[in-house]
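Hi V.,

Quick status before I head out on leave. The structure for the redesign project is tokenized and pasted below; the design run finished overnight.
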């Protein structure tokens, strides 16, 4: 009988997720008067950086051919 006590962790919410939650709470409680675009910006900024990295890698593969 094997006694496997290892556990795995998914890493949690992350910095941008936590920052987004903080901005949403501040917006809903009235502490900030930002547009919802700026409140949710940590989500789309991360996505924009990911797309930028993908485009750069695609450009390098096209130049290499």
């Amino acid at each position: 009988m094997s006694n496997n006590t290892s556990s795995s962790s998914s890493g949690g919410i992350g910095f941008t997720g936590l920052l987004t939650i903080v901005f949403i709470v501040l917006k809903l409680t009235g502490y900030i008067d930002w547009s919802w675009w700026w409140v949710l910006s940590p989500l789309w900024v991360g996505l924009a950086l990911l797309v930028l990295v993908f485009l750069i890698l695609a450009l390098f593969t096209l130049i290499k051919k």
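Above is the designed sequence. The chain has a mean pLDDT of 87.

G. will cover questions while I'm gone.

Best,
W.
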